[in-house]
């Protein structure tokens, strides 16, 4: 799942049941929560968002501005890097994902003070 983290938004939240299963030291037991998370992940993977690469600066134009969205819960930190581009169908620019990062916090990091 770590290899997919840059392509799937909020993977830490989506995969939390899997991390809980792998973290336990006693017997591994597949739960309904894990099955529901797996089904939701499979459904998401059938139509994932298309990542766009940002335009680089050239001699005649400047680089595109990138927007960073951060989502934090008590157990997961997720970020999304997006770029805004004009869309011919809408008057407002449309946001396209560029990169995702998601991390499940370890028990010691959960104890850090929240900012």
SSE topology:
Blueprint: H1 11-14, H2 16-23, H3 32-45, E1 66-72, E2 76-85, E3 94-104, H4 107-110
Antiparallel strand pairs: 1-2, 2-3
Q: Which key features would you list for this structure?
A:
single chain; 115 residues; alpha+beta; 3-stranded antiparallel beta sheet; 4 helices; 24% strand; Rev_trsase/Diguanyl_cyclase; RT_RNaseH_2; Reverse transcriptase/retrotransposon-derived protein RNase H-like domain-containing protein; DNA/RNA_pol_sf
Could you characterize what this model shows?
It is a single chain. With 115 residues, this protein is α+β, with helices and mostly antiparallel strands. 26% of the residues lie in helices and 24% in strands. It has 4 helices and 3 strands; from the N terminus they run αααβββα. The protein has helices spanning 11-14, 16-23, 32-45, 107-110, and strands at residues 66-72, 76-85, 94-104. The protein has a 3-stranded antiparallel sheet. A hairpin with an 8-residue loop joins strand 2 (76-85) and strand 3. 9% of the residues are buried.
Helix and strand sequence: HHHEEEH
* C-alpha geometry: elongated
- Structural class by secondary-structure content: alpha+beta
**Major beta sheet, strand line-up:** 1-2-3
Low-confidence stretches: none
What fraction, in percent, of the residue positions are helical? 25-40%
Mean pLDDT: 83
């Amino acid at each position: 799942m770590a290899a997919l983290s840059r392509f799937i938004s909020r993977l830490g939240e989506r995969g939390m049941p899997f991390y809980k299963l792998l973290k336990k030291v006693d017997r591994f037991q597949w739960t309904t929560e894990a099955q529901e998370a797996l089904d939701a992940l499979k459904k998401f993977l059938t139509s994932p968002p298309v990542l766009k690469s940002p335009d680089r600066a050239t001699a005649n134009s400047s680089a595109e501005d990138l927007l960073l969205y951060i989502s934090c819960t008590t157990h997961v930190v997720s970020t999304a890097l997006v770029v805004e581009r004009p869309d011919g169908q809408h008057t407002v620019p449309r946001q396209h994902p560029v990169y995702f990062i998601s991390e499940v916090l370890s028990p010691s990091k959960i104890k850090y003070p929240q900012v």
